[in-house]
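Cross-posting from the modeling subforum.

Setting up a comparison between two proteins and wanted a second pair of eyes on the formatting. Protein 1 (sequence, then structure tokens):
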Amino acid sequence: MGDLLSVAVLYGGQSAEREVSLKSGAAVAAALEGLGHRVKLVDVTSALSETLTDLKPDVAFNALHGTFGEDGCVPGLLEVVGLNYTHSGVRASAMAMHKPTTRLVASWHGVPVAEGALVKAAQLAEAEPVARPFVIKPPEEGSSVGVQMVHSGEDIEERLRSYGSEELLLVEEYIPGLELTVGVLNGKALGCLEVTPAEGFYDYTNKYTPGKTDYRQPDMQAGFVQEAMRYAEVMHQALGCRGATRSDFRYDTERDRLVFLEINTHPGLTGTSLLPKQATQAGLDFPALLQALLDAATRDHPYTLLG
């Protein structure tokens, strides 16, 4: 273990994922205090720079999820105030948060993606760019916020009521089969989990409600599992990510087809979160995982505004 530090755990914020971030931050703070670090929980507001100036921590642990915390905004502020911080830098955070951009990066690096298109809601009402069933995703949200499935025979107008007519939406073909997720720490895959919701798809409720989803470790020697772990490392490195990421995939068992869905630069750190489960697969308990993130933050700094 490294030196004991003064750590500001940034959590909460005002994104659609605020409640998840509050849980992640509380869990992180408790574990870091258990390691002996001096911890201050900071619910992020517009006064963040002033708060950090007053606290003068050694490092910021970024436990925010979603808009502002995960899209590069808060890392940018931390760059300006000159404070070490966990997780990815400005450019990597912004690119990873924008799903259409990550699709392009994946394609450039030979990582397969689903057929899809970025369209306005009004355009989708007039013409569907891929065959049904398909998935509608806001291009810059995490935790499956705003994600909807459209099946054969459903009224698309009803599905689009929750979006503005000019709102951009990512529409992707639905890939049947297994849901897989791979955690990466410092560029190396930790493990792979198969995710099976009790009903429906892996939406916000199933992600964060205990007992709603079953997690199992697939055969780690299976070809598609090894491929998923390799692709997760490729995406982590291609985007220039630091610390921990988690990449999600679908594996079509009938067509032997693995497809990359998205990468998360701030994986959840709650009691139901996947990254801690995958760290356990690699022999790291929760406090050890957090210490590794702190070590990376202090070792890899200084970041640059484009890092």
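Protein 2 (same layout):
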Amino acid sequence: MRSPPQSISIVIPCFNEEAVIPILHSRLKESLEAIRIPFEVILVDDGSRDHSWEMLVQLHSEDPRFIAIKLSRNFGHQFALTCGLDHSSGEVVVIMDADLQDPPELIGDMIKKWSEGFDVVYGQRIERQGESLSKRLFAFSFYRIFQRLTGFALPRDTGDFRLLDRRALVALLALRERHRFIRGMVSWIGFPQTALQYARPQRAAGVTKYPFRKSLKLAIDALVSFSWAPLRLASLLGVVISAFAFVYIVVVVLLKIMGINFPGYTSLMASILLLGGVQLIVLGIIGEYVGRIFEQGQNRPLYLVDSIAGTPSFQGTDRSAPGARQPS
């Protein structure tokens, strides 16, 4: 058994969350103070267009343990998470969403699991309240398709809600790929990991910031980042179509020798459209990988920080990004 951690960092990305921030602050503060371990909460404003940033700065002025970071624009959920992790300084770090569908009351249970020797404790949903049937079906299908295509044991029915030990976090932050699927990257690094099962409640306030379009994009990033299966599928598709075309050529030649001749406009157009469609699909799949190589080769920073209200509370290390300024 490990002794309780000396410090905890909570990392929370925020995007247009003014409706939920007061509730988030109240529940987080109550839950963390009950644990009786020094903590810091890092709230990353991912280019919000409402009053989220002003509210986060006000939180910091009232309680310096709440640190606010404002990105220069909207970079996306996974990049905002990465920013918060880069700036965290606790012995253990908890990732959660601002909408309180990741209950802060479970942080104490995660720490108990960590004390048993696990470096990663991930929340596993046994119930998803307030979500549509289509969204639950999409999530159910994704994890099973992902594992089948990649052969990679990604824990099913999980999100980004998890606790990481400092050594697991250091390993995660060494992965600076641009198309980020953090829950998959955490599984990839290894180290002892275990699940904490919970029923996921509805949002405490506001509306979802992750519609189907964003969920689909994240799913594509996950599949392409962790598997060559789409390229293999493109190759297999090419082999199958080529075999079909070869058989068709043989049949046409035999019919010609036998003196049987059919008007060929319909079959010719069908063949051209089929082959053209397959070629475009294959080129599109290859383009997905080439595009990722291009973006990674640009070596741009994953995010840019506009302002920071506060500094890391532990280890005496200032992890602020170059060019960041204190809010006025």
